[in-house]
Amino acid sequence: MKRAENKSPEAPIDRRELMRRAVYMVGGAAALAGLEGCSGAEGNVQPQTRGSAGRYFSAIRMDQLRAVIDVMIPATDTPGAIAAGVPEFMDDMMRDWASAETRSQMKAVLDQIDERAIRVGGRSFRRLAPEHQLAVLEGYDAHSFEVWNADYQRFKDLVLLGYYHSEIGATQELRFELIPGRWDACVPLGDMRTWAD
Amino acid sequence: MEPEFDAIVVGSGMSGGWAAKELTERGLKTLVIERGRHIEHGADYTDFDAPWELPYLNRIPEDEQSLYPFASQATKHFRMKAGDHPYSVPEDRPFRWFRGYHLGGRSLMWARQSYRMSDIDFEANKKDGYGVDWPIRYQDIAPWYDHVERFAGISGQAEGLEQLPDGVFQPAMELNCLEEEMKKRLEVAYPTRKLTIGRCAHITEATEEQLDLGRGNCQYRSYCSRGCSFGSYFSSLSATLPAARLTENLTIVTDAIGHSVIYDPETNRATGVRIIDSNTKEGRIYTGRVVFLCASAIGSAQIMLNSMSDAFPTGIANSSDMVGRNLMDHVSGMGAGGSFDGFEDMYYSGRRPNGFYIPRYRNVTEDAPDFVRGYGFQGGCQRGSWERGRGMAGIGADFKHALRTPSGWSVWLSGFGEMLPNPDNRVTLHPTKTDQWGMAQVHIDCTLGENDKKLARQANLDAVAMLEAAGFKNVSARGEEPFAPGSAIHEMGTVRMGHDPKTSVLNKYNQAHDVPNLFVTDGACMTSTACQNPSLTYMAMSARAAHHAAEFLKAGTI
Question: What is the 3-state secondary structure (H, E, C) of B47-113?
Answer without folding.
Answer: CCCCHHHCHHHHCCCHHHHHHCCCCCCCCHHHCCCCCCCCCECCCCCCCCCCCCCECCHHHHCCCCE
